Amino acid sequence: MRAEEMDEGLFGEQGEEGEVGDSHIPVMLFPAIDALLVTPGEWYVDGTFGHGGHSGEILARGGNVLAFDVDPAAVSRGKSTYEKEYPGRFLIVSENHRRVAEIANSHHIRPRGILIDSGWASSQMTDESLGMSFSSDTPLDMRMDPTLDSSALDLLETLGQDELVQIFSDLGEEPMAWLIARNMVEARSRGHLPRTGKELAAFVSAVYYRKGFRRSRKHPATRVFMALRIAVNREIESLTLGITEGRKVLPVGGRIVVISFHSREDRVVKHLFRDWKQSGCGQILFQRGVVPDQAEILANPRARSARMRAFSID
Ligand SMILES: C[S@@+](CC[C@H](N)C(=O)[O-])C[C@H]1O[C@@H](n2cnc3c(N)ncnc32)[C@H](O)[C@@H]1O
């Protein structure tokens, strides 16, 4: 799958990504939970609780769940639902899953599987206060975890041109990274920095327009938004640590299942699993990863950018 194909499900057509009000449709629910091989009575880590779709399926199959989320709203949802419905079988912590080994050990939990369904819940994408949408009038924040130091606007206000180029090209694979960053720094020096989702979307569109682009299948600001979101939330670092720390607490036969939504993230997972296999740690379960079938994509267009990979520990 090309990078563009993986990316476009994220922001390309905002508001058409499987959102139903405030809810979130879990992606590849059954393939992911099947890959975890849930044994009743054993513990599993849901590293990205969100709206609890995957946790709910693990619980329904008799597994116990230690859930993580950095978003306080997700943690409250978990506490008011599953923690009450499944006393002693469900525990949710307001933590980044990069701390999975430490937190599991502190609760004397030895999980048999770990699931990471990376990125954002649909409700976060449409949350006005996060400034994530192209039409948002609130300051560009983009922090899933409100305790993080820097918002997207902080990055735009303080980073140099080279650092902005690196974010846009490395994390967003934005072909106009250099031009957008240069225009951004110039606009900043004139006091015209884009400060809201709406302003940033218009700013990037104008750069494309001046270069002669008139129409595209997705919004021209898609990659810049994605890059900023990944940078603000240090998503690549968290994913890498969540997976590598997670492996430390898994027993032989334990499984790690990761669903990612863009090629940059998927590459991290693919390379980690390949390195583990080469060093004899276990087996890659699906060589090319698993993608959603047409029926799922029709029912939930956001799923079209997903790819699931899984590893079994020897
Ligand atoms: C795609 S949603 C998960 C959806 C969930 N599987 C479901 O079925 O509802 C991702 C969630 O993980 C959280 N999240 C993202 N990165 C995280 C991290 N490094 N540690 C903990 N939570 C994280 C986000 O706040 C969001 O709620």
From TrEMBL:
Catalytic activity annotation: cytidine(1402) in 16S rRNA + S-adenosyl-L-methionine = N(4)-methylcytidine(1402) in 16S rRNA + S-adenosyl-L-homocysteine + H(+)
Location in or out of the cell: Cytoplasm
Domain of life: Bacteria
Keyword rRNA processing listed: yes
InterPro entries linked: RsmH, SAM-dep_MeTrfase_MraW_recog, SAM-dependent_MTases_sf
Residues where S-adenosyl-L-methionine binds: 52-54, 69, 97, 117, 124
A GO CC term attached to the entry: cytoplasm
One Gene Ontology term from the biological process aspect of the record: rRNA base methylation
Entry annotated with the keyword Plastid: no
Known role: Specifically methylates the N4 position of cytidine in position 1402 (C1402) of 16S rRNA.
Similarity field: Belongs to the methyltransferase superfamily. RsmH family.
Family matches, as PANTHER family: 12S RRNA N4-METHYLCYTIDINE METHYLTRANSFERASE (PTHR11265:SF0), S-ADENOSYL-METHYLTRANSFERASE MRAW (PTHR11265)
Official protein name in the record: Ribosomal RNA small subunit methyltransferase H
Upper classification of the organism: Bacteria, Pseudomonadati, Nitrospirota, Nitrospiria, Nitrospirales
Name of the gene this protein is made from: mraW
